[in-house]
Sequence to fold (641 residues):
Amino acid sequence: MSDTDNDQLEFRELFEAAPDAIVVVDRDGTIVRLNLQVERMFGYGRDELLGKRVEALIPERFRAQHPQHVASYSKSPRTRPMGSGLELQGRRRDGSEFPVEISLSPIASTRGQMVAAAIRDVTDRKRIEDEARRANSYLLSAVDSIQDAFSLYDEEDRIVLVNSAFRQLVGPTTAGAIVGRRFEELLDGAIDSNLLALRDETASAVRDRWLSYHRSPSGALELETRDGRALRVIDRPTAEHGTVSLIMDVTDDRLRADELRRARAQAEAASGAKSEFLASMSHELRTPLNAVLGFAQLLQRDRKQPLSDRQKDRIDHVLRGGEHLLKLIDEVLDLSRIEAGGITISSESVGVRAVLDEVVNTLEPLATRANVQLAVAPISSVPPVVADRTRLAQILMNFGSNAIKYNRAGGHVMFRVSHDDASVKIAIVDDGFGIPADQRGRIFEPFHRAGQEAGPIEGTGIGLAITKRLAELMNGSVGFVSETDLGSTFWVEIPIDRVGGLAVAVAAPSAAPPLGSRTGARKVVYVEDNPSNIAFMRALVDDMPGIELITAPTAEIGLDLIRAHQPAAVIMDINLPGMSGFDAVQALKASPETQSIPVIALSAAALAKDTTRAREVGFYRYLTKPIKIDELTAVLEEVLS
Ligand code: ADP
Fold:
């Protein structure tokens, strides 16, 4: 084969293998040559096209115009893309169309001037471009639909994109186009046209503040407009070293927050007033009850003039009624305070076993009287729980006393402890009356006594309500199952202490002050303004040999008498006319001659916070009215021994 032949062969192979479809047409627009890609792209066989007009490859609607284009190209032939700026379409043999790009090149041949058209199918590229265009327009309309003023700045801090809300906000403060302007120019416009309220800043201070926030934004910038709107600006740097900025109108949020704050303050004041009211109500109710219960107890124990059995029986009724009333007052007060969020629950690491023993010991006399057997199921090892020890005991006492109360002679009550990974469950199982099915739903609601309202068993219907709220405050829960005539099981679940024995220190009760060398050892000064209480105390002390009672109607007089008599003990009311019992005990503790005299508080205020405060200011013991004679005599004997 000659070199020329070889060259021709190579050229043909190249021509056939070209990625574009190439057709060569003569001056008249007749196809004289084509490559394999043309066949593939347009679906024609080679012979079907050779010698045909090139218009076969374009959609019919463009064919009439085409020969003109061919003619004008032939006049000034040069390599160039065809129909620049136009969307060109190819037409396949089957009539379907597709987007193409065509570049034209003149070819001089022995047969005269020819034109080679390289055709590229751009369907895929068009699709990608369309998608990008669509995505872009989605983005623009999303940005525009943002309620907040949106703006995007390039690395030179010029605006690239803003939305309508931004135009509305900034438009009136600046003339001309916004896009392309620098942030600082817009800022100056906003400052100069008094967009912002200055409060106690100068205009240039506000400008500086905004500018420095924009340059290195962190958190949010709060501004206020002159017409009273609150604006929150949030700027963030973009990956392209520009900044994106949102300006939100937070006027409504601000108003709502103010309203909420006001409402909360009102609610707190109301709840405070309610607590105060309850505390004073409970005080007012306890004071007369104090006289009723105190004197009834004295009558019952009077050794000089013992009561007849008939009288004793009646006094028993008085005492029981009074005690019931007292319990009711305590429980209503407790529940209201829990509901008002007025109690603090401590989180101690509590050993379940010890609490259980204490509860069982306390319940034992009640169980013996009711002829019910108490037992604790064997416990292997129980992890400590996180709870308020006193309140946990209160829950168990309530479940336990119910299990005894709503039971029959010969009944059984069993405490059963179990645990899983998260919590310890203490169940109290009884074989008592059970709770009727139709009453079970509301058992934890206050004042619901589940059919016991008319029965002989005393109760207030508040205990379970308190129990449930307390358990929840300790992140625990309560539950029960019950079967009429077969019995009930109530339980409480309390979370396990994971930290392990990191008990919150609880202040130990103050140790008894040394008795020792005080003069006038068996004198007791009683500071009290209520004559009925004084009469009661006199009657009580009468029964205790060797005690001399000195009474004082006010704390001021009491302090004088205490200094003069150096008594062995002081009993102090808290609510006194003039100086309070708290102030009086502080005065005693501050003076070396009286600081070691034990002072027993006797108050109608039974709130936990009073007890805590009493301990802090140095009372030896804090007893609440109505006076429980056994409790008071025990404390007196303790300090006088
Ligand atoms: P109270 O005992 O003062 O009436 P509680 O709130 O403690 O109030 O209990 C509400 C009611 O639930 C009780 O009146 C009683 O009818 C019922 N109850 C509670 N515990 C038991 C129990 N272990 N067995 C049967 N009934 C019970």
